[in-house]
Write a structure and sequence with these properties.
Helix content is 31%, strand content 15%. The strands form 5 sheets. An 8-stranded antiparallel β-sheet has the order 3-2-1-16-15-14-13-12. The chain is built from 12 helices and 16 strands.
């Protein structure tokens, strides 16, 4: 009888244990999926050296090839006296944008959002936006559309990337610290656009406005919509807008460098972090926390044409809107302030290299994005490869991405 009871308990744990559920995707030996064990050992050595060289306090790195996990390693510390672990929870900041874009595209598939409708159709307070002109604002040639929000051609800006008059207006209005996204869009409705909609890429509050549209159209708070339509189907148990009390010990501290030493940023320590309670502003552009496991689920779903583990999130035709460049040559390339990333386009959700990069190891078709605390993801559909690099380092650094990308691609065995 005791043996029978024990067997029942084991079966229950196998079926329902959250820990075991996190083994998805299944692990494989590198050679089984066309990668080199020796090559991945070099990748590990590079990741370890980044931490040893004081370029990051801690890193979690995960690589999936052909749907199988070939590397999932952690290095350094996630907090003082606490080592980095594979289940560490990170602030993913702008990596939230891909998830919010997926949510909007679900509503597009349902016929509830028109990508080419002006945003004022859904957000009335942003119905008649003006265009900034020195000496007096003017009416733009057209209003920004939902599509413009998703590819960052809306004319909206962030207030922190450059020092234009419009950026200064955003800062004075306190857009970043708005109590709710509804208050945020009300403020944005009173600030002129920096550029004519649809004419050029400019990073800004576009995806936050998109998140507000998701709320208005669905009739649900953004966290609820994401949970029901993305997080639960994809078994993303550690992704949300805050860290529950029972998970706080797994939450990484954010670091910065002062006098050559990496030190905790006070706002990110366990006692002071704003992520310990649900925020009133659910930022679709940068408010989520997640883990390497959870974020891989999103990337694998896209690699699998919108479906994962029998759950369809998007149609294959919709996935193409995320995985292919949507910027015309006239709109230019992805640009941050004065830094123009030549050859890097943007889809309805993330950056895309239409052709093989001349300044990075990225192949044609790679889509990717980052978070301001130096987290990164990239996916190569051609190679059936997905990579997530999580850190908590400010100001933003591309060092880990640049150091690891080449060795990871080199670890793919040539046919």
């Amino acid at each position: 009888m005791n043996k029978k009871f024990a067997l029942t308990c084991v079966c229950f744990l196998i079926l329902f244990s959250p820990t075991l559920a996190k083994e998805i995707p299944k692990a494989a030996k590198p050679e089984e999926v066309g990668m080199s064990t020796a090559g991945l050992e070099k990748v590990k050595a590079v990741a370890a050296k980044i931490v040893a060289d004081n370029k990051a306090k801690g890193i979690t790195l995960a690589i999936v090839k052909d749907g199988k996990l070939v590397l999932n390693e952690s290095y350094g510390q996630r907090a003082i006296k606490s080592s980095m672990q594979n289940d560490t929870i990170f602030r993913i900041y702008s990596m939230s944008k891909l998830i919010t874009s997926i949510a909007a595209l679900k509503l597009y598939e349902e016929g509830k959002i028109d990508l080419d409708a002006p945003i004022g159709k859904y957000v009335p307070e942003m119905k008649n936006l003006e265009l900034y002109k020195e000496g007096g604002n003017v009416t733009p040639k057209r209003q920004p559309t939902v599509r413009d929000l998703m590819r960052h051609t809306s004319g909206l800006t962030y207030g922190i990337m450059s020092n234009t008059p419009v950026d200064k207006m955003c800062n004075r209005a306190g857009i970043l610290t708005s109590r709710t996204t509804a208050v945020m869009t009300q403020k944005l409705g009173r600030i002129p656009l920096l550029y004519e909609p649809g004419t050029r890429f400019n990073y800004g509050f576009s995806t936050d406005v998109l998140g507000r549209i998701v709320e208005i159209v669905s009739g649900k708070a953004l966290d609820v919509f994401l949970q029901e339509n993305i997080f639960t189907p994809l078994e993303m148990e550690d992704t949300g807008f805050y860290v529950p009390r029972e998970k706080v010990k797994r939450f990484s501290t954010c670091y910065t460098k002062i006098s050559g030493k990496l030190v905790p940023i006070p706002f990110s320590t366990a006692k002071l972090s704003k992520y310990h309670a649900k925020p009133t502003q659910l930022s679709g552009g940068g408010g989520l926390v997640s883990t390497t496991h959870d974020y891989l689920q999103v990337l694998l779903m896209l690699l699998n044409n919108g479906e994962l583990n029998g759950k369809r999130i998007l149609k294959a035709s919709t996935v193409k809107l995320i995985t292919t460049n949507q910027l015309s040559k006239e709109m230019g390339w992805v640009q941050f302030g004065n830094k123009r990333l030549v050859g890097k386009g943007h889809s309805l959700g993330c950056s895309v290299f239409p052709e093989k990069s001349t300044w990075s190891a990225a192949p044609a078709g790679e889509f990717a994005w980052d978070g301001i605390a130096s987290s990164h993801y990239w996916v190569s559909p051609k190679d059936k490869l997905a990579v997530v690099i999580m850190q908590q380092l400010m100001p933003f650094s591309m060092h880990a991405d640049q150091m690891l990308k080449g060795p990871i691609y080199e670890a793919i065995e040539k046919p």
